[in-house]
Amino acid sequence: NAGVTQTPKFRVLKTGQSMTLLCAQDMNHEYMYWYRQDPGMGLRLIHYSVGEGTTAKGEVPDGYNVSRLKKQNFLLGLESAAPSQTSVYFCASSYGRGVDTQYFGPGTRLTVL
Amino acid sequence: AQSVTQLGSHVSVSEGALVLLRCNYSSSVPPYLFWYVQYPNQGLQLLLKYTTGATLVKGINGFEAEFKKSETSFHLTKPSAHMSDAAEYFCAVSDGNQFYFGTGTSLTVIP
What we know:
Radius of gyration of chain B: 13 Å
Number of strands of chain A: 11
Mean pLDDT of chain A: 94
Number of helices of chain B: 0
Largest interface: A-B, 23 and 25 residues
Distance between the termini of chain A: 36 Å
Structural class of chain B: mainly beta
Largest sheet of chain B: 6 strands, mixed
Oligomer: heterodimer
Strand content of chain B: over 45%
Low-confidence stretches of chain A: none
Order of helices and strands of chain B: EEEEEEEEEEE
Low-confidence stretches of chain B: none
Helix content of chain A: under 10%
Number of strands of chain B: 11
Distance between the termini of chain B: 41 Å
């Protein structure tokens, strides 16, 4: 099992450009999450999904969109990147809700110039 | 809303010394509590978790944590630090739906 994988690992964007981050999991998990990690702020939840075709907003959803067309994939989109979105993005998945362990991907380091 | 406070953003210990990383939470419902570890340039991985039952929870790599409801705490300990324990540690609380992470504690182990 590959677990949770993220594509790409690194990316540099100019302000206003768009991009999509891909998260894939091969554990048949229902729940998937997108977090951003910033120095001194820990991890903050952007969006999450409780199953194929569903999405919900987390703590910091503004400027991001997500889609879960297939159970194994969770996409995070930035329509018009801003320097404030420079961060490390982590995807995670879990079998069920809050008591279940979240499994994390290796992260995507995004820089917006 | 839930929140997590980790006291001390940086902790240094000597190799072989006790590791104590502090975590306090606020929760309006009985919480589920977690400790995750992050090694450089990697994602987070679970160390241990408390859901119900025994309040002293043992995890991987010799770590353990005790849930103290009266103190709203879930401190992480390890009797003897090893060089390989150097990493970032995150405490998290779940209300059964979302996770809320603390800001992290960076552990340095001095040889």
